[in-house]
Amino acid sequence: MKLFAKILSLLFLSTLMFGQKQIDVGVDEKLGDYLPMDAIFQNSDGDTLKLGDVINKPILLSLVYYECPGICNPLLTELAWTVDKIDLVPIDDYQVVTISFDHDETPATAQKWKKNYFNAMKKFPEEGWTFLTGDSINIKKVTDALGFYFKKQGNEFLHAGTVVAIAPDGKISRYIFGSTFNQFDLKMALLDAEAGKTNPTIAKVLQFCFSYDPEGRGYTLNITRIAGTIMLLGIGIFLVVLVLGKRKNK
Fold first, then answer.
1. Which of 74, 103, 122, 208 could bridge 136 with an S-S bond, Cβ 3.0-4.6 Å?
2. How far apart are CA 12 and CA 248, in angstroms?
3. HEC letters along the chain
């Protein structure tokens, strides 16, 4: 039995190491960790402020770059449409924050795109959604804290799409992946953030099974990684059967 346990342990560790490669583009959940509240940014009016000045309510935080030709625009459009219908009171109950991870973007860029999204919103007050830009140092503080990994390719960035629910004290509460959302998910994420709860998602499975497709700007099934895991599991099962078979023969 001890040998059996050792084989299973080695198999588990091997599979784990195989699945936890260094993330190049994607999200590694940091639930329960805290954002750097001293990170400095500029809002769309050009005012300099700390992240802690913005986060004093449950927050829906999105990381994008405003001039993105891919998923950022659909993500923010969908977010604007959804928060406009959430059965919570903006500013009083929650706020929305968007940070550009492109350090070349300016408050003027943020202002342009903020107006673009608010043109389609009916009820949501402008004071309830803060659009931020910053330098590479402060951006990296936030992206590292969130486990958000992106890479520049030419004039564009490869990145994932996610909205993160943040508690009033900066605690990372929940990740909501993709570029489409529903009111219930966002409302529950905000209520969990208010209560200080941390709720894991299936992000680990997505990281493991899917890779970001820069051409399609979406997630595609990573056959190589899945096949490698199946091979490891198969070898482990074979070794277990072999050991047990030898013992039975003896």
1. 103
2. 25
3. CHHHHHHHHHHHHHHHHHHCCCCCCEECCCCCCECCCCCEEEECCCCEEEHHHHCCCCEEEEEECCCCCCCHHHHHHHHHHHHCCCCCCECCCEEEEEEECCCCCCHHHHHHHHHHHHCCCCCCCHHHEEEEECCHHHHHHHHHHHCEECEEECCEEECCCEEEEECCCCEEEEEEECCCCCHHHHHHHHHHHHHCCCECCCHHHHHHHEEEECCCCEEEECHHHHHHHHHHHHHHHHHHHHHHHHHHHC
Single-letter residue type at 129: W
Burial of 209 (0-12, 13-18, 19+ CB in 10 A): middle
Structure tokens at 196: 């200080």
pLDDT(47) > 50: yes
Residue 250: its pLDDT value, please? 56
Residues 140, 145, 149: CA angle, nearest 5 degrees: 60
Answer yes or no: is pLDDT of 49 > 60. Answer: yes
Contact 161, 26 (CB under 8 A): no
Sheet holding 129-133, edge to edge: 48-50, 40-43, 129-133, 95-100, 59-64, 162-166, 172-177
pTM score: 0.73
Is 172 in contact with 34 (CB distance < 8 Å)? yes
